[in-house]
Design goal:
about 525 residues, globular, 19 helices, 3 domains, alpha/beta, six-stranded mixed sheet
């Protein structure tokens, strides 16, 4: 039962209220008698583990889903709407975590897609749309031309465009689902500035994020869901990080982010003088060298653009124009392609799990075995379905993946469980080196703890782990050793004892020598 006795009341006016919301899917109660209040001109934070019901509640508030029971009250009046467009007409907009943009259309065209400004029937007022797009980009402090194709933007810039889509309609209530998951630190600062501006202008924000530092920095009210129920709500002034984590999952943060004991052996992977030119004319990688040992978790830390992802991609063989040597167990890989490197024992969990790690139209089972069918096939070409099912079930159990059945669509899983499917997919290939690029991005504290447990287990089995993260608390906790990148070169190397926040931040800001 929810612990409502701890809920703290406030005098701040409530503009939107959900009362007794219940949502039932076949065989599942996603929300069970949930109350949720949105205070006017405040940041109303909603937290909970994956599967707690956050996304379902937001979809109901945004008109994507209809509640099985309960009511929504806007400015004191009970309202009903049946679509996102209807919700937007009531002033409720949403920015989704997974971007919903048209890559082959311009920024301006994306902002006005399905709501084009017409001069007259059949004629779109492109000048107006481009002018409005320019104003929004200026407001968001982004140097992005309205006619730029979305496919030519970086991921962080695309997220800014997604946020701008909601601002076009001047929503009075704006729901943001993990809006900073793909943003650089400067872009996050821009977003936070915009949020403050919106609050001054009377806009109410509903904010979902798994980044605890963000919640404590910008949140005004914090509501916690667990297993589809309201557990607690407090003003930020009387909440802290320990309370959030304890309320979400019943554990303290220092019990979650911790490394396990594992033996470290000899060198399994060596990178020598890796170099990669970038599209901007400078070097994305400029002489990167390091060694990874068996059973070691080697953390790679750095700011956006430091070259973290490029290092992993180069080791994986994704860049034909890269130079330098990648040596696996004494063997130089030279110009071997991705397929050959996977077969020799190198595997990568990419940063963008939706576009690079999963096939959205396939099942959990098919995604799980996609990279390692050659491990399951007999005589090199025949797929043994019995062996395949057994391997999938083994990985579901090993990864503690929550799914109703293996043939469910991968999109039916929460973000944390999707991430575990990707890790399981890589383990089917039986890697000697597993590279993880921001593996905890966009997943909740409980799922992060499970990823940490998996990484520790894999290191204990002798697998060499390259762990890229921009989260200081995580990379310091999980890594046996940390190298820091800055502007494409190694700017520091630290043991676990030496890897203080001050040392890591200072190294990440070093100019290129």
């Amino acid at each position: 039962m929810p612990s409502t006795s701890a809920v703290v009341s406030s005098d701040d006016p409530v503009v939107l209220k959900a009362e007794g919301i219940r949502k039932v899917y076949p065989g599942t109660v996603a929300l069970d008698d949930v109350d949720f209040e949105v205070h006017r001109a405040k940041v109303n934070v909603l937290v909970g583990e994956n599967g707690a019901g956050k996304s379902t509640l937001m979809k109901i508030l945004a008109g994507v889903e209809q509640p099985s029971a309960g009511k929504i009250i806007l400015n004191g009046n009970v309202i009903r709407y049946s679509s996102p467009r209807d919700a937007l007409a009531h002033g409720i907009g949403i920015v989704y975590q997974e971007m919903n943009l048209f890559p082959n259309m311009s920024v301006a065209e994306n902002l006005f897609a399905n709501r084009e400004k017409m001069k007259r029937p059949g004629w779109i007022d492109h000048a107006f749309e481009e002018r409005k797009a320019s104003e929004l980009m200026l407001r968001l402090k982004q140097d992005i031309a309205p006619r730029t194709f979305v496919r030519d933007l970086k991921v962080g810039q695309q997220q800014i465009v997604e946020i701008a889509k909601a601002l076009v309609e001047d929503a009075s209530i704006l729901i943001m689902d993990e809006p900073t998951s793909a943003l650089s630190k400067p872009e996050v600062e821009v977003l936070f500035h915009i949020i403050e501006e919106l609050k001054v202008n009377g806009v109410s924000i509903v904010y979902i994020s798994h980044r605890m530092d963000e919640l404590m920095r910008i949140g005004d009210y914090i509501t916690v869901l667990r297993d589809g129920r309201l557990i607690d709500k407090r003003p930020k002034a009387v909440a802290d990080l320990h309370w959030i984590v304890r309320t979400m999952i019943g554990e303290e943060t220092d019990k979650i982010f911790r490394a396990g004991e594992h033996a470290i052996g000899g060198t399994v992977l060596e990178a020598r003088d890796l170099r990669l030119p970038s599209t901007t004319g400078r070097m994305a990688l400029d002489g990167i060298s390091f060694k990874l040992r068996k059973g070691e978790v080697l953390g790679i830390y750095g700011l956006m653009g430091a070259g973290r992802t490029e290092v992993l991609e180069t080791i994986m063989g994704l860049h034909e124009n890269a130079t330098g040597d990648v040596i696996l167990e004494g063997r130089e890989l030279g110009k071997l392609g991705i397929r050959e490197r996977i077969r020799l024992g190198i595997s990568l969990v990419p940063e963008d799990r939706q576009r690079e790690g999963l096939v959205q139209t396939m099942s959990v089972s098919s995604n799980m075995t996609l990279a390692g069918l050659w491990r399951i096939a007999s005589r090199g070409f025949h797929i043994g379905r019995k062996r395949e099912r057994a391997k999938v079930q083994e990985m579901i159990s090993r990864m503690s993946i929550k799914t109703s059945r293996p043939d469910s669509l991968i999109t039916s899983l929460s973000g944390g469980n999707q991430q575990k499917v990707i890790i399981g997919k890589n383990l089917v290939t039986e890697p000697k080196v597993l590279m993880l690029d921001e593996p905890t991005r966009g997943i909740d504290v409980g799922a992060k703890a499970e990823v940490f447990h998996i990484v520790n287990d894999l290191a204990s089995e002798g697998i060499g782990i390259l762990f890229v993260s921009s989260e200081l608390i995580e990379i310091r906790a999980i890594s046996d050793r940390i190298i820091v990148l800055s502007r494409g070169y190694v700017s520091g190397e630290f043991t676990r004892e030496e890897a203080t926040e001050e040392n890591l931040v200072a190294a990440s800001a070093k100019p290129h020598p």
